[in-house]
Amino acid sequence: MKINDENTDPNENSTLNSESSSDPSKDPVQVFCRLRALPEECQSCVKLLSPTTLTLTASSKIGRKECNYVFKHIFTSYAGQREVFEHVALPLLEDLVKGKNGLLFTYGVTGSGKTYTLTGEPSMPGVMPRCINTLFNSIADYQAQKFLIKSDKMNGFEIQGENDALEDRLLEVKTSTTKMKTIKRGGGDVKNNYENDGTKLRCVNENNLYAVFISYTEIYNNTVYDLLDETSGKVLQAKIIREDSQKRMYVNGVVEVEVKSAADAFELFCIGQRRKRMGHTILNAESSRSHSTFNIRVVQLQKDRSHLMVGQLSLVDLAGSERCSRTQNTGMRLKEASSINNSLMSLRTCLEILRENQLNGANKLVPYRDSRLTLLFKNYFEGEGNVRMIVCINPSIEDCEENLQVLKFAEMTQDVKIPKAESRYTPYKYKTPSKPTKQTPSTQTPVTSKIKKVVSFGPKIPSVKLNMENPHENIMVLDSLIKLLHARRQKRERNQQELAKREQHFRKRLLHIHQDSVLTKSEIRSLKALLKKEKQTNRNLNTKITDLETSNENLASSNKQLQDTIRTLQTTIDEKNLRINQNRLEREKAKQKLALQSEKMSQELDEKLRQQRARLQAAMLAKEAKIQKVKEILESDTMSACASEQEVEARVQPEVKIVQEMRTSGTTLPTPRHRRSRSAGEVWLEHNAIKPVALGTVLQPSMKKRKSVSKLKKASDVTNPRQNKYCLLAQEADAGGELETKLYKGDIVPTCGGGAQVIFNDVECLRQESPTNTHAPSTPSRK
Ligand SMILES: Nc1ncnc2c1ncn2[C@@H]1O[C@H](COP(=O)(O)OP(=O)(O)OP(=O)(O)O)[C@@H](O)[C@H]1O
Questions:
Q1: Which residue among 36, 121, 220, 318 is best mutated to probe the pocket of ligand 1, counting the most ligand atoms within 8 A of its Cβ?
Q2: 679-767: which CATH number, 2.60.40.4330, 3.90.226.10, 3.90.1170.40, 2.60.260.20?
Q3: Does the ipTM exceed 0.90?
């Protein structure tokens, strides 16, 4: 792979993926790519540069990125199923008939055409039906009798006697009749005949007898299930993966059915397919939720029946990798998806480590055991057969990012080298026949022949003819006969002893076997109980997992809601903070403005006060001058008494004018009624509020001699003859909330009854107002 700028020559890359292997004993994993057709309106992210090179254009936030990938062969969307089969699967099928193993798997994003490539449709059969049809087209005439070769349930095969094979065939006819009846009653049709194009293999050995065995398994949520297991009813039982005597991995107890025609194989496939976990997702209406393996095993028996040869072809339809954000899976589907992605990740890790070991000569442990998928195919990666992969690509823009990952994996896989597979005949076991028969002397066990030998008493007793004419000769013949009989008797005794010994030995063994069987039975019983318990625990755990998943989902959704609320609150807080800051700024501005205004006003007030003081001083001076003049006039009256009243008035007139002028100019002068300087004879009774507010005015009521009381308690408080003036001070808030002080003044006049009355004749009102209050004067006023 190489990342291109727009101008790079794409053909440069074709040399990058060198297929040549330096080690002739190893072959790289062959990776093919198949592009799915796109609807016309959709845009493609893949461009084909040559039959082996393609460019993937991925657009991201950073920009456009072009990557080239080289494969063994790329099938365009116009390539048919036959072309794919002939290129990819036919060589593996030829290997299979030669007794070699092969693994073919499809890999890609969900909905990219993996199942279509492997299975196809009846009119457009995929790899699997074509393999089956081609196989039976080729070996149909060279098949062994059914049940002659039988699975030993431990990944091996054994040959059984003809009678046993016959019995099994009869049994099968019986059960298949019952089965057909059940199917007919249930209305099910398990037949699905894929179109057969008559392709044949040329490498069939006509001297051999062939038997084809089919098994079909799936790995769902990292557990292996047998899709052909009829015993487990509707709920499939989990199977375990084991290692056989030759260290090959196999599914323990898997049902392996011998098929004699392609139709039989398709029937089995359809039965399994109905059990396979499929599901509807947003991206594929019929999405495989498990990895399924369709296993074809071809067993060849040499004509002389001395050796067996077994080849295996595993066709694996991997579940598609999927991003949960795109599929929007939840609950069960989410669990399936994560299990699928995990197992694909394990496959990737194993291949990466294998490659690293091969490239760097490292010896890292390949973690096959991390997943059932990798454990089951461990042998293939370690040299038990050829490995081929078809990478399926849906070139739509939406799949681009996931395709990038798939192509990266595919590219890496091509670097992994697998030791070349070998075909070999292996000696087989003979299954002990249930009943020894005369027709099959070869099936007699060695034990039986040995017993026969034990009970033979030696050569036959010769017939003896006595010659009456020669008694001497007769005696000799009888002697030898006696000797022979004696020897036979001795031999019989020896044989009897041997028999007794063997009988004893056999009994001992039988007893031993019986004990073993009793022990095994009890062990099986306890294992069954344990299994039952484990199953129960498993069920409980599954329920717990589902519950936890549900609560997890609930928590996630409430978490999302809370996050939304937090976000909304955060936005509100931000807005409020902004508003607070704005308000603060405005307040500060207003404060500054106010300070400026108050400074200006205080300056104005100071100025006014200064002017007022000057005017008052001037008025005082005028008054003093007037008084001085009045004094002078009075003095001159007493001394000369010649001056007329007009003269005095004329003299006083200018001062009165000054006072009048001051009044008209707005200067607050005390009215003649409110003179502050009183004669020394005025004594005031000042009647205050209980806690009067300090006036704090410049002009204070002038009461030089006074007695202040807050409450008139007795009559003498008023009738005191020394007091002649009364002043009542009242304070209250006016309509504008400002403090208003009123001084009600009057004369205390004694009454003829010895009491006193107050004659109010003046009200003085003091009001203090805020300078900012524009409609009222800011100075205390007197009324
Ligand atoms: N090359 C093709 N030509 C025509 N139709 C195709 C092709 N590839 C896929 N399809 C169609 O696209 C749909 C999805 O394909 P398919 O089920 O094989 O995808 P998948 O990769 O197996 O998906 P999943 O991983 O979800 O099982 C099917 O309806 C199939 O018929």
A1: 36
A2: 2.60.40.4330
A3: yes
